[in-house]
Amino acid sequence: MLKKISAFSCLLFSFLSINAQSDSTKKAVTTFSGAIDAYYRYGFSDAPGKTNNFTSFTNSQNSFELGMATFKVDHTVGKVTATADLGFGRRAQEFSYNDAGSLASIKQMYLTYAASDKVKFTMGKWATHVGYELVDAAGNRNYSMSYGFSFGPFFHTGIKADISLGGKSAMMVGIANPTDYSTTSSSAKFFLAQFSTATSNDKVKAYLNFQGGAGITQYNLVVTGALADKWGISYDGSLQSYKIGGSSSSWKSHAMYLNYDPSSAVGFTLRQDYFDDRKNTPIGIGGKMLATTLSANLKVDNLTIIPEFRVDNSQQPVFFKGASSTGTKTSAAFILAAVYKF
Fold first, then answer.
1. How many whole angstroms separate alpha carbon 25 and alpha carbon 108?
2. CATH number for position 258
3. What is the pairing mode between strands 303-314 and 288-300?
4. Residues of the signal sequence (predicted)?
5. What one-character DSSP code corresponds to residue 46?
6. Count of Cβ atoms closer than 10 Å to residue 54 Cβ
7. C-alpha 284 chain-centroid distance
8. Is residue 282 part of a domain?
9. Residues 6+ apart with CB under 8 A from 229
């Protein structure tokens, strides 16, 4: 038996050595990318010391602020890719809000193995598949974030498989730590899934997303469509429920995005964002919220200037107005942002 094991070990070692020598002859490809952004926000009715802000990344008043500097490197040899995506600034800190120290700067870090042209495995930390908006300002047309993004998952740490189903359809399944934890002592794990498809011309794309575990269940649907050469529309909807111990709660969100691009240098996006904290979840809004955001995208080479006007209307007087900090149901704000991508 020992001889057989030894012989098998030698054969396996020889096979790995041959493959290692073969892989060493493959050309390595390294790509670098990144972005930086900054913004100014003015709330027209914000009371002293209040920002009237319940969404991510723009919690400021009458101040010039740094968004995030992000640096991403992808290194590929053969079927294997290593990715490190680092971020520094307010967005990175709020994105990795459960992490401290250097972990808070790691937006994404993962290894990918393409087992075939139809199956790909990924292990590490990656931005969530749930939702339409991204942590990187350069990936969004609105600068401020929707309620669905702000309260929806941010990232997952675990392992997943992306599987092509043929044509325009694909699926993803994965197992991860509790949502938004890079490291945890909890033994609980979350199940992740996505089904995606598109029309033959890619003018309509749809993504059905899921996450569930530790008493939390969330369903999400994202649909994007090209209405005409200069017009586009997208929808992002989520339903998340909690059932922990003897208590239960839930929230839902719907966001519509209407895009108009009269030229390659100018674009406009109108976002209508509805959020219902219908069972008074730990989020604490305790009611319905309707936010309307109009953003322009003015492009000069790699630079995008985003002037944005936003109005939030709440079912409850959760905002504060004037020096007396009187409760109000409406808040309006202006943002001027600059985003550079390289």
1. 29
2. 2.40.160.10
3. antiparallel
4. 1-20
5. B
6. 21
7. 22
8. yes
9. none
Single out the residue of 170, 205, 166, 213 nearest to residue 189, CA to CA.
Answer: 213
Is 45 strand, coil or helix?
coil
Q: pTM value?
A: 0.90
User: Are the beta carbons of 290 and 325 closer than 8 angstroms?
Assistant: no
Using the 8-state DSSP alphabet, how is residue 47 labeled? P
pLDDT score at 67: 98
SS3 285: coil
- Of 6, 38, 218, nearest to 130 by C-alpha is 218
Least confident of 13-22, 99-108, 162-171, 246-255: 13-22
Q: For residues 146 and 156, what is the distance between their CA atoms, to the nearest angstrom?
A: 20
Q: How many CB atoms lie within 10 A of CB 171?
A: 15
**Secondary structure in 3-state letters for 113-141:** EECCCCEEEEEEEEECCCCCCCCCHHHCC
* Both structure tokens of 136: 């990187």
In-domain check, residue 279: yes
Decide if 54 contacts 46 (C-beta within 8 A).
Answer: no
Residue 279 scores a pLDDT above 70: no
DSSP assignment of 55-83: SSS---SSEEEEEEEEEEEEEEETTEEEE
Q: Are the CB atoms for 127 and 139 separated by under 8 Å?
A: no
The answer to whether the CB of 110 falls within 8 A of the CB of 126 is yes
Helix or strand run (H / E) with residue 217: strand 216-226
Domain around 134: 108-341
Query: For residue 133, how far is the Cα from the chain centroid?
Result: 6
CB atoms inside a 10 Å sphere around CB 202 = 10
**Residue 298, domain member (yes or no):** yes
Domain count for the chain: 1
Question: What's the residue count for the chain?
Answer: 342
Give Cα 96 to chain centroid, integer Å.
12
The answer to the question of residue 11 being in a domain is no
Task: Give the residue from 75, 181, 93 showing the smallest Cα distance to 135.
Answer: 93
Beta bridge partners of 218: 211, 240
Arithmetic mean of pLDDT, 86-108: 95
